[in-house]
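Hi R.,

As promised on Friday, here is the backbone we talked about, encoded as structure tokens. Could you run it through your design pipeline when you get a chance and send me back a sequence?
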């Protein structure tokens, strides 16, 4: 956390805090709260004076977001300061032509652009000692963006935001390597470059931080190349030390579509090689191919399960089958899902030939042990399957032989929690206490119990994703991109309690309204500072951005809220209270002299 001394933010580490006395800690916290309160009162007084003046003059009241900025052709004049709700963001987009664009989330205007392909070419040319301008050689290169990773560094005074761009580079059709660019997202300037003389299979930002010699706190980036060599960014002694201390906790799992297998890897003691811990090979004789894989993000936002208990009414099929009115949700963060497909086959048995239509298989896998927790078989499906893992749900979409769009939902419940002797109230209390007292391990946790359901969906789906919030309290909303170029927002709770064969989607759930996103391919979500709100951007041939609140804006007042009436009412209550107090004292004094 941060404390403020004479108006400057200073980062207090755990070791430093232990050296401080209790009085010093309390004093620093009270000082920080006092400075924040003073700033809020100044802003509130400024707002009162401005609104009062506007009402006296009769001028219309304009919100801050509706004010027009004086913006020139290069984007100067845009408000780039961080707001309290986290609405003022930069949207970074990379095009296939090699341009990197930064868009303002509120205004939708272009802040800056950079032809980042030339920066990649410049790094490779410098390594190979080739002279000449980068644009003279760019036709000899084939560059593909592998990933774009937010990379933050904390100093004693500031939080520095960076972006890591990882490119797969092919030079003259022979040499292949990887270029890592560290850029400033505010202006797009390149701060540092790194060249790896091999292609990468996997990159992940580790969840434990290191402290450099210059007192910078950051999270190391772990990269695994095609020869299963391990690379650490930044390659410093401090970063390597923290990775070595936590290497037993590192589990990397990736899918090889061409080789048709899923494997999990760890890190050896020398931090140079990846160790294969488990592998699942799919059946090549039946031509089973990997169609889709749904991993979880590094920050594990999707596995923040606040409501760990699910209640079942007596009419629910799960209650009728298991005679249980509640279950604990399965909260293992290392679960991922794989969908495979098989083409139409002719099977001969006992001199009889049987034709089996195209089918699909859904696997739910523990990424640490490689154990298959659940698998489901689907017959007569198309080869295109979309799959999504969020909290304890696995949601997948497919098209059957009748060209009907179908959605399946798999719910995972914790099989290690006996619930026969507990009431729902006792179970809720236990769910709040148990995660802090009982550690969980993927090696000893029994497999979950599973409840599956499927139903017809009225739209053909092109992509699936979920919203994320900053604290994981807000209910998730499933963002569904349709082939018609629309975006549907469906509450996760409405997908788990379907009792009819068709999921009815009201027109009010179309969050793209009357806009059509042509050739919609992907939807991305990012949390705002305000817990109730998430940023959503969809892209294909078009770009579409919107802020959504799955559980409504329960932590923010509406734009039409009458602040002036609130101020008048509060002032009247204060004056009335003081007046009544004064009259009561006069009445007591009169009675005493009577």
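Update: got your reply. Pasting your designed sequence below so it's all in one thread:
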């Amino acid at each position: 956390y941060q404390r403020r001394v004479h108006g400057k933010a200073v980062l207090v580490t755990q070791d430093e805090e232990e050296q401080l006395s209790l009085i010093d800690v309390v004093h620093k916290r009270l000082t920080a709260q006092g400075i924040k309160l003073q700033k809020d009162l100044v802003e509130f007084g400024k707002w009162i004076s401005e609104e009062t003046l506007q009402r006296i003059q009769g001028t219309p009241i304009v919100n801050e977001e509706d004010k027009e900025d004086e913006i020139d052709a290069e984007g100067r004049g845009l408000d780039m300061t961080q707001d309290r709700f986290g609405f003022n963001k930069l949207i970074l987009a990379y095009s296939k032509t090699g341009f990197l664009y930064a868009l303002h989330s509120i205004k939708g205007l272009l802040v800056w652009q950079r032809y980042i392909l030339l920066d990649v070419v410049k790094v490779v040319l410098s390594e190979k000692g080739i002279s000449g301008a980068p644009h003279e050689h760019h036709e000899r290169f084939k560059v593909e963006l592998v990933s774009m990773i937010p990379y933050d560094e904390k100093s004693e005074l500031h939080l520095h935001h960076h972006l890591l761009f990882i490119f797969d580079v092919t030079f003259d059709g022979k040499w292949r390597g990887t270029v890592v660019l560290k850029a400033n997202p505010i202006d797009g300037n390149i701060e540092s470059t790194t060249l790896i003389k091999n292609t990468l299979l996997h990159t992940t930002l580790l969840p434990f931080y290191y402290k450099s010699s210059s007192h910078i706190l950051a999270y190391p980036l772990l990269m695994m190349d095609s020869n299963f060599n391990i690379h650490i960014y930044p390659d410093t002694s401090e970063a390597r030390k923290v990775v070595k201390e936590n290497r037993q906790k590192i589990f990397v799992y990736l899918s090889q579509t061409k080789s048709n297998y899923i494997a999990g890897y760890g890190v050896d003691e020398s931090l140079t090689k990846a160790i294969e811990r488990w592998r699942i090979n799919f059946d090549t004789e039946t031509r089973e191919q990997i169609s889709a894989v749904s991993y979880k993000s590094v920050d594990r936002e999707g596995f923040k399960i606040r409501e760990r208990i699910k209640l079942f009414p007596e009419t629910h099929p799960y209650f009728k089958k298991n005679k249980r009115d509640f279950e604990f949700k399965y909260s293992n963060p290392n679960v991922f899902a794989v969908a495979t497909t098989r083409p139409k086959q002719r099977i001969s048995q006992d001199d009889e030939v049987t034709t089996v239509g195209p089918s699909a298989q859904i696997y739910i896998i523990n990424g640490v042990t490689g154990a298959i927790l659940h698998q489901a078989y689907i017959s007569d499906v198309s080869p295109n399957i979309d799959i999504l893992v969020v909290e304890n749900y696995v949601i997948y979409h497919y098209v059957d032989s009748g060209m009907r769009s179908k959605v399946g939902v798999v719910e995972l419940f914790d099989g290690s929690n006996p619930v026969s002797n507990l009431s729902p109230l006792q179970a809720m209390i236990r769910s709040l206490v148990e995660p802090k007292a009982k550690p969980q391990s993927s090696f000893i946790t029994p497999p979950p119990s599973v409840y599956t359901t499927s139903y017809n969906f009225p739209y053909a789906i092109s992509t699936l994703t979920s919203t994320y919030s900053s604290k994981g309290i807000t209910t998730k909303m499933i963002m569904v991109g349709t082939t018609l170029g629309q975006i549907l927002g469906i509450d996760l709770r409405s997908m788990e309690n379907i009792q009819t064969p068709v999921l009815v989607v009201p027109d009010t759930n179309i969050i793209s309204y009357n806009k059509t996103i042509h050739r919609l391919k992907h939807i991305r979500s990012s949390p705002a500072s305000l817990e109730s709100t998430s940023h959503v951007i969809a892209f294909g041939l078009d770009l579409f951005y919107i802020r959504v609140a799955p559980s409504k804006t329960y932590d923010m007042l509406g734009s039409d809220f009458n602040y002036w009436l609130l101020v008048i009412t509060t002032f009247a209550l204060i004056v009335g209270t003081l007046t009544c107090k004064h009259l009561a004292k006069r009445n007591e004094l009169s009675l005493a002299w009577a």
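One thing I noticed while checking it: The radius of gyration is 29 Å.

Thanks again,
M.
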